[in-house]
Amino acid sequence: PAGDDLMAITDTSDTSGSSSGTSKRVDVSWIRGGEIITTTDGTESPAATQMYGTMFIADNATAANDTDYTLPSAAEGMTACFYDNGGGTGGIIIDAATGDEIILDGAGIGAADAVDSPGVAGDGANGDYLCLIAIDATSWLTFGRSGTWVDGGAD
Questions:
Q1: Cβ-based neighbours of 33, under 8 Å, separated by 6 or more
Q2: pLDDT (tens digit per residue) in 17-37
């Protein structure tokens, strides 16, 4: 790797045993310093320091209740993903902080509003996830997801 934020990936699909594949450089700074946090108690209020590449896993395997996350105030460059690893009837609710807004499908959903996973409706959301990146001091942009996430309104 050349630099703290880059790694080299070598294409080794050459079956002759040669390692003369093509090298590619990929920026992975958004996952540097991340961790995995499993939530089992139904609520989580991540600290700002946890919002740099962290994967939050909602342990909804048998839960009948939703896991409710309240985001810290946005700061440009923060990133996190939220994943439902269960099949119970619980889902994931992600609340923006007061004054912040989540941008879903290219449109803001309202200051301090939440986005809800399909499991919030009681469908069981095994494998649903949503990734967010703070693009400035008040806006969270969704940049990856599985499942139909919706505007959950004020929480």
A1: 52, 53
A2: 444 444 443 333 334 456 788
